[in-house]
Every structure is written in structure tokens, then in C-alpha cells.
Amino acid sequence: MSTFDVDEFLARPLTARVATDGPTVRPTWYLWEGGAFWILSGEWSRLPARIRERPRIALTVDVCELDTGLVRQVVASGAAELRPFDVPRGHRKLVRYLGADEERWDPRFRAYLHENQDTLRVHLRPSRLIATDLSYEVVGASFAAKQCS
Domains of the chain, with CATH numbers? Predict the structure, then answer.
């Protein structure tokens, strides 16, 4: 297995899956900054209540690109905290997924930055983080490419 730059990988606008005790798994957008994951949430979601009950969560971010052979994963876990929402961090997160032009964003996303909606941040500084690169060399046309032709 080869190594890869975890910060560079997590800077990509990928979708993470967060698991709470229950068990519950949900897809989410995230921001990776300063060795921690930041997830937008609020009382409209069950996530804050689950974290208040049992703060330990697990999160995975992965890619599996059949055409290129890129297979990487980051698995993190630890005790999550609920923190007040701050607009600059929220803006950085939304820009990485939606682009810089807020006028093109769905109004729901603009509202997170400009209206009080009881928005929270879930903060996870992992006590455990495992990064694995299972990439492989693609020889000839991939199975996925054959299926599309």
C-alpha cells in the first residue's frame, strides 16, 4: 500500500458518511481544517440529539474510481462536540461544494449564511484516523468504460 497526503485528499469536495450510536449512518458534506472535521447541522436534524446522548462518532471519506484505479479511504473516530455556527467557516465549506458564486446556490444554502436557523457545527477532532491507499494500476480499458460503450 502506498501513502498519500491526507490533507490534500480531504480537501477534495467528497461526501463523508457519519455513523452515530444507534446505529445511524448518514452522508454529509464536511470541511477538514486544522486536523478536524466540521459538519453543518442543526435542530432540524437528529444528529445533534444523537451526539448529545452519545458523542462518539465515526466518519469515513472514500473514493473508488474504476477508470483510474484510485481507491483511497480515510476513517476517523472520536468524541464529537456541538459548537455554535460561524459564518466564515460555513462559507468556506459551502464554497468547496457549491462554488464561489452564491447567486447560483439553492436558497437553502444561502440561508445558512444569512439567516438565523439554529445552525450548529459538529466538530470532530479524531482520536483515531486511518488513511489507506488501495489504488491499483489500470491495464487497458476498465470494466466501467466497457459498460458505457
Answer: 6-148 (2.30.110.10)
